[in-house]
Every structure is written in C-alpha cells, then in structure tokens.
Amino acid sequence: MSAETHAHDDGHHDAPGHGTRRSYLIGFALSVVLTAIPFWLVMSGAIADKQLTALIIMGFALVQVIVHMIYFLHMNTRSEGGWNMMALIFTIVLVAIGLIGSLWVMHHMNLNMMPGMEMNDTSAM
Amino acid sequence: MAQAQAQALPDREIFYLADEHDHEAGGSTMLGFWIYLMSDCLIFAMLFACYGVFGGSYAGGPTPAEIFELPLVAVNTTMLLLSSITYGFAMLAMEEKRKTGTLAWLAITGLFGLCFIGIELYEFSALIHEGATPQRSAFLSSFFLLVGTHGLHVSLGIVWLVTLMAQVGRFGLTVANKRRLMCLSLFWHFLDVIWIGVFTFVYLLGVLR
Would you say the ipTM is above 0.90? Predict the structure, then answer.
C-alpha cells in the first residue's frame, strides 16, 4: 500500500519554465511585427474593404495572443500537471459564451426594438 | 490486507490521510495565481462584451474615428511591449542569481509601466477636455470603464513591482521572493495580452468602423 508515497510527487515540483534570452527575443520580435502590421493597415488604409481589414486585424490579434501565451507566459500542456491548461480551456469556453452570447442577444434586441418596427409589422399584416 | 483493515477498524475509523507527506511552502501558489488570473480574464471578457454591445451607441456624441489618436496608441502599445521584454530579462537575471541585474531590469520595467500610465492619463484628460467624458454616451462610458480597468491593473502592478523591489533589495533573491516575482511576471504579461484585445477591438476596429 504505497498510495500515499507516489502520487503527489510529479505535478508539484516542476517550476513553471522560464524562457531563455533567445525565446524572449523571438517573442518580442514576433509581437512587434504582429502589432505593427495591424496599426499600419488601419492608419494607411492599405486595404479598401473595411470588413476584410477588420477580419485580418482580428486574425493578427489572435496570433499575437498565442505568441504571448507561449513565449512570455510559458504556457504548455505540462505545467502544473496540466491544470494550467485545464483552467485556461475552461476560461476560454466561459469567455466565448459570455462574449458571443452578449453580442448575439443584444444585436437581435437592437434589431427588433428599433423605432418604427411595430409600424412595419402592422403594415405587413 | 484484510487483516490490516480488521486491525485498523475497531478502534476508530480514519477518513483522512493520517501521515500526509510534507508540501513545500507555496507549492501550489503558481497554480492558484493562474486561476486568479483566469478569473480576472473573465472580468475583462465581460467589460469587452459591454463595449461590444454599447460601442456603437454614440447618442449623437463623438465617434471613435473622431476622438482616437492611433499614433498615441501605437506609442502606448510600444511602452507595454518593451516593459514585457524587460520583465523577461529581469526573470532571466533572477534565474542567474544576479540581484543587481534583477533590480535594474525591474526598475526599467517600472519606468515603461509609468510611461504607459502617463500616456493613458494624458489621453483621458485630452478626451475629457474635448467633451468626450464618460457621461457623454454609452460608447464613452464603456470605453472609459474597459480601458480604465486595464490602466488600474497596470498601476497596481507598478505598486506591486516597487514593493517587490524593496523586498528583493532587503532580503535578496530568496525562494519566497522568487515565487513572488514569478507571480508578478504572470500578471504583467497577462495585462499585455489584455492590451492586445484593447488596441485591436477598441482602437483599431473603432477607427475602422
């Protein structure tokens, strides 16, 4: 019966990894590029289509968040025996529900509560 | 096996581990701090949702394109990015057990943080002088709430940074101080991640709109 002697030793002691000078510099260089391009796109108006520009900018933001997670926050699937990643995934799910849910509900409420809506409805009937 | 149980049971039933092994002090601090950061992330998510819902309600007041100055935001973003890498260098110096180096990099990080806060306060005061106050429209209320909350986090981060510099200066790079520095490291880089969302969704998409 050695249940109490083994189990705990693995998860605890691995200190969260610290990057090396090289990994910090790579992360920094990447984030500079990933910041400069969206700013340049908006300030110069290089792409005429605003919706396309918006999509590209959001793409850059997503990539940069991942870059920061890896190079600055040292996220990986092993830190703290995987619990870091579990907490992160749980949070992402909650954030997605909160953000998408709010925007979706309020967008439709705005559409349906616009002044003049009732008149349109009655005239349609 | 059965014999051992038979011996243990009659006296008293033990529902807990009687001889639990030692946990090192602060062994779960990093995970706990990470979970705190995730809860902070939820606060920001709700503020972003708020801005997403109200961001277009100008109430006849100024629009983002009229009041946001992207060059200023770009400088601000640069300050925060620079403070991130200098904090990284502080952590590397800490790993190499160089106390003076750690303190120097922490001080530089703090200065970049102060520049960020200074620029943000300048921006806020300029907006308020133009009449773009939080009371003007739902867009401006949610803008000041979201960006102001981030700014408050950075300000408190600077207070924390100065505190830790005093700690390290007084007691050196002890195990406890290293752990504290690692927590602040997570906090500082996390605020940078939030700022990516702010400059993308509030400023860039606001000006595009």
Answer: no
Whether the pLDDT of residue A68 is over 70: the answer is yes
The answer to whether A103 contacts B35, with C-beta atoms less than 8 Å apart, is no
Asked if A80 and B30 come within 8 Å (Cβ–Cβ), the reply is yes
CA atoms within 13 A of residue B134's CA, in its CB half-sphere: 11
Q: Is residue A48 exposed (0-12), middle (13-18) or buried (19+ Cβ within 10 Å)?
A: exposed
Nearest residue, CB atoms, B49 vs list A25, A31, A103: A103
Query: How much is the average pLDDT of B88-109?
Result: 96
Say how far apart CA B88 and CA B93 lie, in whole Å.
Answer: 9
Cβ contact A5–B197 (<8 Å): no
The pair of three-digit structure tokens given for residue B102, joined into one six-digit string: 């750690």
Helices B99-129 and B70-95, interaxial angle, to 10°? 160
How many other C-beta atoms are found inside a 10 Å radius of the C-beta of residue A117?
11
